[in-house]
């Protein structure tokens, strides 16, 4: 039998911990943000302050459920093509998750290292900012993000469930979910989207034209690929292709993580009043900001 990847090993451990964790005990707060005890630890956050970033690290930042695993897959594939060898995970890729020794182990990894994160910009370790490492930030419309987040909690058997969609929606709007408020995350990143080392990617744009999105990502990372190579990566990065391999790549959570991969699924769950409440929240937090425009909210979140 093939050896379990670090990714699957880590997920299995988190699921084991989840079995014994009630929703009311799922979070601990660090610097005003709630994190799940099943994936994050105070000692790891403390160790993270001393993380030594490299200028050639590749950082993939997103709020949960905005397509982190998708972009990670794409960047790994790009790197595998340009380096002519398969990029292997040697750690669970989410920077802030795992044991506090992981940053010591990461010192030994060859460049470029790829890491994902759900941290707000101002919670990133200082060395990432100083190093000017390239950062890809992927955003998804907040209504589909909330629906994906809800399903993940309530569909995966071992993860604590919410009482109902209405219950989850209330928590989501108050930012009482893992990694805190979508809107705080967005406001925080909004100020940095035009920094030279940062590239914004919209989930919905990738859905619309995957090959173009992959080409733009390759260009940003300074990778030179042929049209054929881009097309080949594109074919392996569709929702269907990734879902088909999800058990192999992501273990037990795979089929739940790669759930539907659609734009507009929010229409199946949002009540009219919830939709209006989110429209108001969007207006207050993001309307008129560069990110507010980039999210194409009217197109994706209004009927
Ligand atoms: N290839 C591809 N195409 C389209 N959509 C995709 C793809 N890969 C992942 N996804 C969808 O992304 C959602 C999961 O987001 P994340 O990977 O960020 O989740 S996590 O926060 O890391 O747990 C989750 O969204 P939902 O299906 O709406 O739940 C995944 O299906």
UniProtKB/TrEMBL annotation:
<dbReference type="Pfam" id="PF00685">
    <property type="entry name" value="Sulfotransfer_1"/>
</dbReference>
<keyword id="KW-0808">Transferase</keyword>
<dbReference type="InterPro" id="IPR027417">
    <property type="entry name" value="P-loop_NTPase"/>
</dbReference>
<dbReference type="InterPro" id="IPR000863">
    <property type="entry name" value="Sulfotransferase_dom"/>
</dbReference>
<dbReference type="GO" id="GO:0005829">
    <property type="term" value="C:cytosol"/>
</dbReference>
<comment type="function">
    <text>Sulfotransferase that utilizes 3'-phospho-5'-adenylyl sulfate (PAPS) as sulfonate donor to catalyze the sulfate conjugation of thyroxine. Involved in the metabolism of thyroxine.</text>
</comment>
<protein>
    <recommendedName>
        <fullName>Sulfotransferase</fullName>
        <ecNumber>2.8.2.-</ecNumber>
    </recommendedName>
</protein>
<comment type="similarity">
    <text>Belongs to the sulfotransferase 1 family.</text>
</comment>
<keyword id="KW-0963">Cytoplasm</keyword>
<dbReference type="GO" id="GO:0008146">
    <property type="term" value="F:sulfotransferase activity"/>
</dbReference>
<feature type="domain" description="Sulfotransferase">
    <location>
        <begin position="56"/>
        <end position="289"/>
    </location>
</feature>
